[in-house]
Amino acid sequence: MSENQNNPNNQWMDNPQLAGLDKEKLKMLQRLADQGMNKSQSDMLPFLMSAATKGKENGIHFSSDEINAIIEVMKVGKSPKEAARLDKIVSLMKMMKH
After folding, report:
1. Phi-psi bin for 59: left (phi > 0), alpha (psi -120 to 50), beta?
2. Does the predicted TM-score (pTM) go above 0.70?
3. Cβ proximity of 1 and 10 under 8 Å
């Protein structure tokens, strides 16, 4: 049994789609998940943009495949409305990146 199974909030980390992801990246994602849990939709985009900047400053970069896998894992168990909201946030982030 992995340590993530002891905490239901961490079970997403055991998703097979994330099996190849570096453990440091997973730890960073868990910290983000914990910090972002109570953020409103309007606060989420600035929060994620700030987190992305901090990650880059610390030398943590995610490939497109890693990002896509993370997004798909985040959608597991979400309602269609919540999944659509997540897609919208991702689209906004991609637009801001260019």
Report:
1. left
2. no
3. no
